[in-house]
Amino acid sequence: MRLMTKVSLIAVAVFTLTACNKEAEQPKPLTLDTDAAKQSYSLGVSAGRFIDSTIKEHEKLGLPLASDVILRGIQDQLAGKAQLTEEEVQKVMVALEQTAREKQTELAKAQAEQNIAAGKAYLEQNAKKPGVTVTESGLQYEVVQAADGPKPKATDVVRVHYTGTLTDGTEFDSSKERGPAQFPLNQVIKGWTEGVQLMSVGSKFKFTIPSDLAYGERDMGTIPANSVLVFDVELLGIGEEAEQPKAEEATK
């Protein structure tokens, strides 16, 4: 999280001078007819966006910040009338940043626990659907389109088309627009390594992968920690390549 300690004082000052005039009922007309004016205004807008996002981030953590007090602090500093010493300001900001980190950790832990419970419930329901097979590891798969082609080994390089979604249907990756993905099968998540070995070239499978066979407790950006992942996979081919492309991000 970016905190106020990381804000450029110049940017904040410009924001205050260009966007904050609390005594005036309406702002004066502004003409942006020079590079300096546009640069100054852009710097102010950037600082304003940062302040707004910082306030919203802290609100999510249960740490409300008052925009009017923030701007008053800027004005007082510019006027040389700050009501806290530099040492006091630094002490408060360090404490705020520490509290924010602790809150983030608490929220992340709570969300991870919710994901575990939700994932377990989803897997239990999905396992009851007709056509779904559950392996010893807990991997669930459904044969969407059968084929009689060869099956890969874990040490093979495979070429696939795939789409990956969360259990709520949110798509986080797909090869459909980029073109087929190619990678060594033993260099991807466990659920892929196990599941694709069950496929014949030309077949299409749907895999529902428990979090411990995917990314586990790791938060992968658009993929929250402890997430069950759903992949629609088509195995296009098997073959060793002189130069093997890196594994796709969604399956590392």
Automatic annotation (TrEMBL):
Annotated Pfam families: FKBP_C, FKBP_N
Molecular function (Gene Ontology), one example: peptidyl-prolyl cis-trans isomerase activity
Keywords: Coiled coil, Isomerase, Rotamase, Signal
Chain coiled-coil ranges: 86-113
EC number: 5.2.1.8
Catalytic activity: [protein]-peptidylproline (omega=180) = [protein]-peptidylproline (omega=0)
PROSITE patterns documented for this protein: FKBP_PPIASE (PS50059), PROKAR_LIPOPROTEIN (PS51257)
Annotated PPIase FKBP-type domain residues: 155-239
Stretch forming the signal peptide: 1-24
PANTHER family to which the protein is assigned, alphabetical: 39 KDA FK506-BINDING NUCLEAR PROTEIN, FKBP-TYPE PEPTIDYL-PROLYL CIS-TRANS ISOMERASE FKPA
Similarity comment text for this entry: Belongs to the FKBP-type PPIase family.
Name of the protein: Peptidyl-prolyl cis-trans isomerase
